[in-house]
Amino acid sequence: MCKNKVMQVVSNGYGYKEVQSRCGTTGISGGLLICGECQEKAERMYPQGWTYVPGDTCRHGNYVGDAYGPDYICGQCEEGVL
Ligand SMILES: [Zn+2]
Ligand SMILES: [Zn+2]
User: Fold this and answer.
1) Which residues in 1-80 belong to E strands, given as ranges?
2) Which ligand is closest to the CA of 56, given by its number?
3) SS3 call for 70
4) Are 33 and 50 in a shared domain?
5) Which residues constitute the domain of residue 81?
6) Are residue 50 and residue 30 in the same domain, yes or no?
7) Are residue 8 and residue 25 in the same domain, yes or no?
8) Ligand 2 center to 53 CA (angstroms)
9) Most confident stretch, 10-14, 21-25, 55-59
């Protein structure tokens, strides 16, 4: 992640306000905030996509870890199912 700021829109009870947070921090929705540049890089690195952090979802849609590496392996991945 980098030093870019990511804009989030937050409800404050009356309306909405914009909050800037560092790229790579956890956003209000619980997902990882990443800027456009990192998103582009991550999409190339993790073509399978992600739920919360880049690479946390394998091509079968199972949770397999986080941006720092896999925690466990999906059974289908282990068997070499594409
Ligand atoms: Zn970034
Ligand atoms: Zn898998």
Assistant:
1) 5-11, 16-22, 65-66, 69-70
2) 2
3) strand
4) no
5) 46-82
6) no
7) yes
8) 16
9) 21-25
Pairing between β-strand 16-22 and β-strand 5-11 as defined by DSSP bridges: antiparallel
Overall domain count for the chain: 2
Residues 30 and 54 in one domain: no
Give dist(CA 19, CA 51) in Å, integer.
Answer: 22
Enter the tokens of residue 26.
């956890």
43 C-alpha vs ligand 1 centroid, how far in Å? 13
pLDDT of residue 22: 96
> Hey, what are 7's tokens?
């804009």
Please provide residue 43's backbone torsions phi and psi, each rounded to the nearest 5 degrees.
-65, -30
Q: Which amino acid is at 28?
A: I
The verdict on 52 and 82 lying in the same domain is yes
